């Protein structure tokens, strides 16, 4: 059996960023850009009005109020037909191009129509350029508007569309197949008969995958037969990562390792010194250009979640091209209560963050949750972190320092 650190090292050794591919801006959300994006136009593409109002000569208002003759109306999407001469004004809407000759826009709220084509302006003398956004003031054609290595955010999607770059080259979302195994599993919407339980792991793992910027592909539940496992594992091996839940322990129906071997998946390790999560299995299969990383998570939902956070999540980060953090855990203080821990393996214990580090307290504080052990998933639904108790026997009290893994 290997330690958690060694297991993580072995797992990360197999994980390299996925090859960049072209995606639509919306599909690229959350991905790292693998190219500089250049603009094909100036932004804004013309001197544009920032308000609804009148484009005028600023000098016409040097003496305060003025009455001007309206030349035309220009809405967004139209272009001006006339140049604005002294004593004239063009009614203009937000976003529309400024007519030649005009050097300021007065807001419509500061004007009154007088007659059919006359407008009175009662504004402070405008400064030249008032309410005009000059062409190219945000960026110029040919300029890099988003640098390679940036994360595609919602605003990035907008910029990509503004500059017409509709197929950006990005490191794609890893595709993660999820295969729940077990004769006892029924769908979460069904009512269990004796001996049956609802498949909570499949949807939970899909949610974890989604949360980590990868695309879950939930396969149908595999019964504990070699035939079913062979077919569905084969399907799952078409993805970048295959996450199995169940079937990797020491029971008579824990058939996953043998079927994985038969399908050409080479085992890297089986069993890790940790609690919960000891039966964890990890291997890889290479077929042509495609490599699939295969995790066999213990079926116990808490074990599955802990193993996901410890091993699958860092792999997804690596596949997405994200930097590996220097440390995944943080130091914290126990906020309250007393606690005894005894175990032959390091234990990951659910806890909530009570307070962040402050000037008064150098470390954040955590409260250990009431937890019935690895069958108790409910406590995990509340947890912000897993406190790591080293193997051995130890008593903890308020103020004691511990290491914790954020989840
Ligand atoms: P296994 O790792 O297959 O031996 O399963 C260990 C425990 O986890 C058993 O009590 C299973 O019933 C339970 N279990 C396995 N798969 C799931 C699942 N998809 N959802 C909820 N519990 C599961
Ligand atoms: Mg099972």
Please give a handful of descriptors for the protein shown.
alpha+beta, 407 residues, 18% helix, binds adenosine monophosphate
Return the structural class: alpha+beta
Can you list the ligands bound to this structure? adenosine monophosphate, magnesium ion
Q: Which term fits the overall shape?
A: elongated
Percentage of residues in helical conformation = 10-25%
> Uncertain runs with pLDDT below 50, 5 residues or more?
none
Round the mean pLDDT to the nearest integer and report it: 95
- Cα distance, first to last residue? 25 Å
Largest sheet: 6 strands, mixed
CA radius of gyration:
31 Å
> What's the total number of strands?
30
Across the major sheet, the strand order is 9-6-8-7-11-10
Describe this structure in words.
- The chain is an alpha+beta fold and 407 residues long.
- Helix content is 18%, strand content 32%.
- The protein has helices at 4-13, 154-162, 201-211, 226-236, 256-262, 301-319, 378-382, and strands spanning 2-3, 21-22, 32-33, 37-38, 48-49, 53-56, 66-74, 88-92, 104-107, 111-113, 118-121, 132-133, 144-146, 169-171, 175-180, 185-186, 197-198, 215-218, 241-245, 266-270, 272-273, 281-287, 290-297, 330-334, 338-343, 347-355, 365-368, 385-389, 392-397, 401-406.
- The strands form nine sheets. Strands 9-6-8-7-11-10 form a six-stranded mixed β-sheet, with no helix packed on it.
- β22 (281-287) and β23 form a beta hairpin.
- α1 packs across α6 (301-319) and α3 (201-211) packs parallel to α6.
- The longest helix has 19 residues, at 301-319.
- The mean pLDDT is 95.
- It binds adenosine monophosphate and magnesium ion.
- Adenosine monophosphate (AMP) binds at residues 180, 182, 184-185, 197, 199-202, 245-247, 249, 251, 254, 298-301.
């Amino acid at each position: 059996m290997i330690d958690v650190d060694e297991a993580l090292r072995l797992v990360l050794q197999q994980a390299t960023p996925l090859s960049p591919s072209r995606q639509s801006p919306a599909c690229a959300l959350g991905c790292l850009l693998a190219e500089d994006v250049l603009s094909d136009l100036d932004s804004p593409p013309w001197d544009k009005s920032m308000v609804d109002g009148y484009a005028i000569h600023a000098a016409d208002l040097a003496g305060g109020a003025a009455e001007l003759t309206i030349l035309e109306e220009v809405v967004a999407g139209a272009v001006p037909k006339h140049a604005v001469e002294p004593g004239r004004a063009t009614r203009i809407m937000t976003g529309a191009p400024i007519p030649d000759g005009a050097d300021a826009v007065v807001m419509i709220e500061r004007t009154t129509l007088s007659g059919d084509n006359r407008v009175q302006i009662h504004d402070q003398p405008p400064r030249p350029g008032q309410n005009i956004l000059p062409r190219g003031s945000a960026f110029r054609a040919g300029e890099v508007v988003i640098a390679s290595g940036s994360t595609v955010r919602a605003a990035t999607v907008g910029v990509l569309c503004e500059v017409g770059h509709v197929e950006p080259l990005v490191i794609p979302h890893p595709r993660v197949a999820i295969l729940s195994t077990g004769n006892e599993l029924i769908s979460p919407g069904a009512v269990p008969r004796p001996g049956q339980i609802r498949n909570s792991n499949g949807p939970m793992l899909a949610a974890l995958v989604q949360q980590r910027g990868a695309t879950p592909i939930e396969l149908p539940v595999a019964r504990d037969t070699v035939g079913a496992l062979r077919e569905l594992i084969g399907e799952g091996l078409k993805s970048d990562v295959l996450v199995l839940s169940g079937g990797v322990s020491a029971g008579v129906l824990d058939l996953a390792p043998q079927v994985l071997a038969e399908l050409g998946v080479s085992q890297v390790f089986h069993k890790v010194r940790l609690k919960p999560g000891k039966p964890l299995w990890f291997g890889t299969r290479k077929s042509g250009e495609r490599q699939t990383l295969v995790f066999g998570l213990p079926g116990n939902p808490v074990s599955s979640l802990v193993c996901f956070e410890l091993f699958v999540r860092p792999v997804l980060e690596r596949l997405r091209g994200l930097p590996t953090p220097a440390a995944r855990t943080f130091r914290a203080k126990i906020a309250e209560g007393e606690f005894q821990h005894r175990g032959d393996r390091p234990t990951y214990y659910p806890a909530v963050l009570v307070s962040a580090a402050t000037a008064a307290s150098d470390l954040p504080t955590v409260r250990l949750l009431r937890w019935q052990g690895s069958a108790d998933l409910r406590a995990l639904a509340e947890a912000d972190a897993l406190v790591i108790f080293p193997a051995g026997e130890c008593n903890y009290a308020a103020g004691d320092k511990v290491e914790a893994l954020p989840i």
